[in-house]
Specification:
The chain is mainly alpha-helical. 44% of the residues lie in helices and 9% in strands. The protein contains six helices and four strands, in the order H-H-H-E-E-H-H-H-E-E. It has a two-stranded antiparallel ribbon with strand order 1-2. The chain has a two-stranded antiparallel sheet with strand order 3-4.
Length: 151
């Protein structure tokens, strides 16, 4: 089962929070943590990692806190997840690892790597701006006779 870590979940929550309040200035780790019932210390660590990866900037002082480092449209979901969890993997041999006893004869390694690449590509094409939108755009659903409709 492909699943995000709890820290990646929290990072997405924090980034969406920051993306939806750009006109209000910075938000503190405490403010974000309290609004979503997340431990403050954990939120602070998540935000620090995001800052190290230059997805957010931190400002000290009485009006300090965190802000997006660039426009929400320029930050992908893949950027956020990889800032927290590192590169996405779907198999134990996610890179060329000839230490695996099955490496030479493995029949699913290459197809699984291609699947991983598709997942990363999909996450990379989904922006924080999309995630932050109030109403997601409904996908087109093919109908009979070549017509499409919104789902």
């Amino acid at each position: 089962m492909l699943r995000l870590s709890k820290k990646a979940d929290y990072a997405l929550i924090a980034m969406k929070h920051l993306a939806t309040r750009t006109d209000l200035g910075s938000a503190s780790a405490r403010e974000i943590a309290e609004q979503y019932d997340i431990p403050v210390e954990l939120m602070a660590k998540v935000l620090q990692r995001l800052a190290r990866r230059e997805l957010v900037t931190s400002h000290q002082g009485t009006r300090g806190g965190y802000r997006l480092a660039r426009a929400a449209s320029a930050i992908s979901v893949a950027d956020i997840i990889q800032a927290i969890d590192g590169p996405l993997t779907v198999t134990a041999c996610s890179t060329e690892d000839e230490n695996c006893g099955q490496y030479a004869k493995c029949s699913v390694r290459d197809p699984l790597w291609r699947i991983k690449d598709r997942i990363v590509s999909a996450l990379a094409t989904c922006s924080l701006q999309e995630v932050s939108a109030d109403q997601p755009s409904a996908p087109s659903i093919p109908m009979a006779f070549g017509k499409t409709t919104r789902g």
